Batch of 2 targets.
Target 1
Amino acid sequence: MSTPHVPEGYDPHAYEPFAVTVDLAVFTVRDNRLHVLLIERGEEPYKGAWALPGGFVQPRESAEQAARRELAEETGLDPVTVESLHLEQLRTYSEPGRDPRMRVVTVAYTALVPDLPEPRGGSDAARARWVAPVAYERLAFDHQRILADAHDRVGAKLEYTCIATGFCPPEFTVGELRQVYETVWGVELDRANFRRKVLATPGFVQPVEGPPRLTGGRGKPAALYRAGTATTLHPPLLRPEGRHS
Amino acid sequence: MSTPHVPEGYDPHAYEPFAVTVDLAVFTVRDNRLHVLLIERGEEPYKGAWALPGGFVQPRESAEQAARRELAEETGLDPVTVESLHLEQLRTYSEPGRDPRMRVVTVAYTALVPDLPEPRGGSDAARARWVAPVAYERLAFDHQRILADAHDRVGAKLEYTCIATGFCPPEFTVGELRQVYETVWGVELDRANFRRKVLATPGFVQPVEGPPRLTGGRGKPAALYRAGTATTLHPPLLRPEGRHS
DNA sequence: CAAATAGTGTCTATAAGACATTATAGT
DNA sequence: ACTATAATGTCTTATAGACACTATTTG
């Protein structure tokens, strides 16, 4: 239960307090590589090290509200966009000693964002940057672990949900959607089979109405689609390595 | 980050403190129905109401350690068994006001247990009982929601992991394993196809060595199996309703 | 005997993997 | 012309659904 074992005469202020924070693993796809938003710490501990954006949960807000607030502050995205973003609770990290100063329990969230508004450093964040995974090195606290867990979760969720469209702009091509999968999974997918699968899944994507606009760099221009209304994939779109039977 | 925005001269005790608790949704299968372990609250608020077992995270333990400790206390299972149990972090519930007394953030865990040792009420838990889901009514706090989320999660995890064996005793029949799926999902599965799928998935189950012992109530005795070493199912074992394409 | 469950086998439907072919753009 | 990508189509393979059939127990 939520509040069992409350000793008689329990005084909330008498206990060693827990601080509750949120941390965010904000992913985007850039140049066919997965990037994550990191900020440079301006204070000890880990001063000068890179860390996931985040902050304290305020007394009157939920952890998710705190995560959206911090996301807006750190990225400079407008609040309306942040409200509609796909924000998923990853898990909570509570090991004693994960913060050297005091007991801090953090609720980690994962967010997927499409384009790349270069982050404007938040009020107190010294610097904010999109960093490619190869540079995931020596993050502050246990953020290395959180980031690895977040990456795993995103990869797994691509298999049985429609979150991949969260990486794409409002209108996108099947090729762009395929590159999301290829980038996150680190594999190459068959263009034809991927296309068949996506279009055969009702509600995954829907063609942009009106004359089928085409766009593209080199090669034949591709038709544009929008994210559909479905949230899960049935049957799932499994990673190639997944099938080993 | 975990501790950003620390005001100058921050004093941990000066803030309104957060309490951090764990709550457990402990499931078992009994009489072909899913049951969950509930305890009756002995104190206000919600005195006399049923609630999920749980308790405070102590200053020097992680949330998972707290969950295992509480699980051992509430169920009377021996510590060795509790250590090896499948314990999965469900999610964290942090809405302000979910506890009327103070700000309580709870980390919810899901556990699957095989047999049914009638719970001996813990030291402070007034009463503990296995309750069938039809009786999931009016739980204390937001435990109704936590329980619903836990049920959903278990059902989803049956599709692509091997956790179903967590509901079974050390040695079990394919029929017992199938009944786990049928009970959690609330559907009937084809016996033959289920058997084929389970045995074709490497590492899901392994036959008990030695002479193929058989057991069973009425009907032909069934061969015994143990849980295998695999943790995930590739390809997954999807719910019948899942396929609607 | 009937009823119930275990276990095997078979046919079919569906979905995915492999891969060929055509179309349309840029260089 | 050459290359890159889009889009379509086809063949094969793998897996799941449906279901018949036998085997072995209890009542």
Note: The domain at 161-227 of chain B is CATH 1.10.10.10 (Arc Repressor Mutant, subunit A).
Target 2
Amino acid sequence: MTQTARKNVAEKIASTLRTAIVKGRLQPGDALPSERELAEKYDVNRSSVREAMKRLEAWGLVKIRQGGATRVADLLLDAGLGLVPALIEAGGEMGMGIMRDLHEVRGLLLGWGAEQAAKKADAASMARLEELAKQLADPKAKAAQLQQLDYDFFQELMLISGNQLLTLLSRVVRDVYFQGAERFLPLYRSDVFDPKHHRRAVMAIRARDAQAASDAMRAHAASALALLEEKAR
Amino acid sequence: MTQTARKNVAEKIASTLRTAIVKGRLQPGDALPSERELAEKYDVNRSSVREAMKRLEAWGLVKIRQGGATRVADLLLDAGLGLVPALIEAGGEMGMGIMRDLHEVRGLLLGWGAEQAAKKADAASMARLEELAKQLADPKAKAAQLQQLDYDFFQELMLISGNQLLTLLSRVVRDVYFQGAERFLPLYRSDVFDPKHHRRAVMAIRARDAQAASDAMRAHAASALALLEEKAR
DNA sequence: GTCAGCTAACTGGTCGGACCAGTTATGACC
DNA sequence: GGTCATAACTGGTCCGACCAGTTAGCTGAC
């Protein structure tokens, strides 16, 4: 339990139970203790426990039924993205796996977004992308700044694609991403980060070359992933 | 206000406010009435209002700060996927747009999933895919069954890909999808639904032809999208 | 008049205790 | 042994109080 200082009571309880579920101490189908019992156990009011329960339900980790007990949901069937922070937190192989997956998804979306941008970026968007690429090439930039810029670039592509669902989705990716942000920071150290992919992508988008743009961004994600796996060894 | 009969009190309030926000009656930055005021207005207890607020916060629609007012978040910056049901519900152009986007994302994921499956499907997964393809080709199947099978096929591909994040994501896609399920139902009527893409994909996966598999599933999504847009006219 | 600083009137967060509304297991009755 | 009412659970909602931050307005020094 590190760094849970500033959390709500409900938040603490929710993340405690989430961890218990993810780590398998609570199995799918198991009934959770009743709200009243949990309230007593954690020495908080039942309202707070209820709030925690609602959160777990929103994450798809439990199923609540009035009258019946609250039970752990079948993770494979019902868990949503709310599970991810717990997976990352769990660390080890599990955490590594999910971070690998995250980069894979990012690569997929980046490639598609670049392709779309090549087809329909307007002058204003084009200018924003170029500005971002320029800042990414700044040798004096700090790793954290580069990380942020890289995300901004990603988001700009999603916006250009005009797909609202993906724009919303990129928000989720961001939350997951910056959750374990410091783990990704080494990827942006000045001696390893190379802005060439972004530069190539911007040029391709300007030239309306969808294939090249897509390839460039995929390459970016792939190289990040390769670095990450190298680090893991 | 139709069909809100079986909802929780909190759920009703949350979706009412969500609609207000999505439709722009409440602008980003605007302060919501205080919890006490809302409780009085809707003639419910403050606890219920609080629950609704927590839900809106989880959706990224509002920002809650102890001491300060609860304010509408900047949708472009903070809203997550929880916004989607409201967009669909809003109907009209907006709803149509989001459904179009949904199919686009589905196509992207289907294509990628099929590609991955061609690379790493094992015998058991292969068998499941074939079984699903067979059932999809059943001329006696009802539209709703076909729709479910189509989703199952999608999910199986996500599972095969081994990407946990995408598996979780497909859960979200499912929720969005079956939310407005009846709107998609016409796509599965026996006189329009054609299982050939699934058949082609399965054959390609068996032959380990990633490109062909990907193309087949992309074609499936594209044709569904085309049908959808034709219907909209 | 201007501005710092205090205070009062907000906001959301937590509490406890009550009662309503469903579910489930018990046990008397047939 | 099977059935069915009911008691003892579960979560859902309510009330009213107080704690803990924020904000705005007032006061007073300059």
Note: Chain A touches chain B at residues 47, 50-51, 54-55, 58, 60, 76-81, 83-84, 87, 97-98, 101-102, 104-105, 108-109, 112, 163-169, 171-172, 175-176 (CB under 8 Å).
